[in-house]
From TrEMBL:
Protein name from the UniProt record: Ribulose-phosphate 3-epimerase
Entry EC number(s): 5.1.3.1
GO molecular function annotations of the record: D-ribulose-phosphate 3-epimerase activity
Active-site residues, as the UniProt record annotates them: 33 (proton acceptor), 173 (proton donor)
Organism name: Curtobacterium pusillum
Family: Belongs to the ribulose-phosphate 3-epimerase family.
Keywords annotated in UniProt: Carbohydrate metabolism, Isomerase, Metal-binding
UniProt KW Metal-binding keyword: yes
Classification via CDD domains: RPE
Catalytic activity, as annotated: D-ribulose 5-phosphate = D-xylulose 5-phosphate
Positions bound to a divalent metal cation: 31, 33, 64, 173
EC class (word): isomerase
Function: Catalyzes the reversible epimerization of D-ribulose 5-phosphate to D-xylulose 5-phosphate.
Amino acid sequence: MTIRISPSILSADFANLERELHRIETADLVHVDVMDNHFVPNLTLGLPIVQRLQEVSPVPLDVHLMITDADTEAPKYAETGASSVTFHFEAADDPVATAAAIRSNGARAAVAVKPGTPITQVLHHLDAYDMILLMTVEPGFGGQSFMPSVMPKLADARAAVDASGLDVWLEVDGGIAVDTVPEAVRSGADTLVAGSAVYGGEPAARIADLREAAAAVARS
């Protein structure tokens, strides 16, 4: 299983985002958290900044929308040229149609679920999505502790994806670090979002450490 590392710029220096993007050139993606202070109690950045990040980033954008009215807003982020756009299942009236609109605008369509949200309805429409993001913390703030209680839900998602034969990535976001990577990967994650675990030191070395922690699971 290919493991992808997606550093979150929520932990980067917001005054120097272009520089911070180039510090993670060895990553597979860059996780861009968009928060609106309504769906979650925090405010980060919006569409114009995502557009500019797309223009200067050396790695593909993995945009995570923690915003209300996902049905209307998510396709606009796909239009920026982002590689992947994730909206929250809880913020969409018609998740399948929203995913289709994202795809029609050229991005991979992904759906996210909070720790307490059942994943059953998402798994019933696997062919609608290119990725499922399982939050391993409550969305809205960085630096929270990993929630092992999400792992059974992740394992269920991995079983469903494998049984379907579809190429649906399974991403985890929240508290991901060298010590939590093994549990996440064993439970079925193949795309790992890490914020302070990358930007809290020398990013290239931290990314390499995360890859090694994931590879160790495969060797065990």
